[in-house]
Write a structure and sequence with these properties.
The protein is an alpha+beta fold. It is built from six helices and nine strands, in the order ββββαααββαβββαα. Among the domains are: 38 residues, no CATH class; 159 residues, 2-Layer Sandwich (Beta-Lactamase). Keywords: ATP-binding, Kinase, Membrane, Nucleotide-binding, Transferase, Transmembrane, Transmembrane helix.
């Protein structure tokens, strides 16, 4: 320890090991003056630890100062910012597709059902026009029975020119309510059905969606040639919902496949980015705690590699500065 006496102005070196532990003053051997002892320096390791403790306490006392984030928060934040935009885009695109699909496809299918019902009504009216004029109701009933057996046909009915029911046949009573089916089996075809969709004056076609026996039916009426009567054909509208859902399955399968593929791709990208960043974070934390001998070993590309090289340059510069400081302290002693 280097001591300077204010009385005689002499400077001399004193062995630290020979100074009592609690001594605060020494006596000058030349002038017998009392010389105050300077505070004893801490060892380098303890000094570094003390500086780190003070720095940590300062950071805790000042919450506005930036500190090292937790690795788990860092990882979650990066994954969150990767997955959230993708999920939002998938939700928005899926919603737009579903909205457009359910707005357009059911209308197209309903139009096709309407066209099919019109064709069936027109062909049946042509087939029964002559028997209806001749009042050959057996031939009319046979022709109506053939059309009632077609797939998707709910019922077929024929009226004469006076509006009276000539024949009425259901395609499949199993698709109706049990109470309605029992009523039909007991009393026959309900004549009020033909009046639900009446034929307007001076019109040859009339179409309407009606509910019969708990089922939604698309009824279309066509006048028989020569205005000798009218034919009504009803088709089940439930087939529209089934057709819409069946046609939607491939589209939903494609959306699910894109979503799974996107999640897998984002997981692969995030894992490739997070792994070197986590390793770099651990190395940086070790350097912040005083471990300057640990080299930065991060393998990556682009900005991650540039960041790793910058941290390695910082570590090397700090280590060189500490080495120079130690050498200066050794020379001064």
């Amino acid at each position: 320890m280097l001591i300077s006496c204010d009385g005689c102005g002499k400077k001399y070196t004193v062995d630290d090991s020979r100074i009592p532990r609690n001594a605060v003053r020494l006596r000058c051997p030349y002038c017998e003056a009392s010389v105050p002892l300077p505070p004893s320096p801490l060892p380098e390791k303890k000094q570094a630890e003390s500086d780190l403790v003070r720095s940590h306490a300062k950071n805790e006392a000042a919450p506005g100062q930036p500190v090292l984030n937790k690795r788990i928060f860092f990882s979650r934040s990066l994954v969150f910012h990767l997955y959230l935009p993708f999920i939002l885009v998938v939700i928005v695109v899926t919603s737009c597709i579903a909205y457009s699909y359910f707005r357009s496809v059911p209308l197209l299918i309903e139009d096709q059902i309407n066209q099919r019902a019109f064709v069936l009504s027109r062909t049946l009216s042509s087939a029964i026009s002559q028997p209806l004029v001749l009042r050959n109701y057996l031939a009319v009933n046979q022709s109506a029975a053939l059309y009632a057996e077609l797939p998707g046909v709910a019922y077929v009915s024929v009226q004469d020119r006076n509006g009276s029911l000539v024949t009425g046949l259901f395609g499949s009573l199993d698709r109706f309510d049990q109470d309605f089916a029992r009523t039909v089996l007991a009393n026959g075809f309900p004549p009020e059905i033909i009046h639900i969709n009446p034929m307007p004056e001076n019109e040859t076609v009339s179409a309407r969606n009606i509910h019969i026996g708990g089922r939604k039916i698309h009824d279309i009426g066509v006048t028989v040639r020569g205005n000798s009567g009218a034919v009504h054909v009803g088709l089940f509208m439930d087939d529209i919902d089934g057709a819409v859902m069946r046609s939607l399955r491939p589209l939903m399968a494609a959306i699910v496949f894109v979503f799974i593929a996107g999640v897998a791709a984002l997981w692969w990208i995030s894992n490739g980015v997070l792994r070197p960043l986590r390793k770099l974070t651990r190395t940086t934390e070790a350097i912040a705690l005083g471990d300057f001998d640990r080299p930065v070993q991060v393998h990556g590309q682009g900005e991650i590699m540039d960041l790793a090289l910058a941290v390695e340059s910082m570590r090397t510069a700090i280590q060189s500065a500490i080495t120079r400081l130690k050498n200066r302290q050794g020379v001064s002693r």
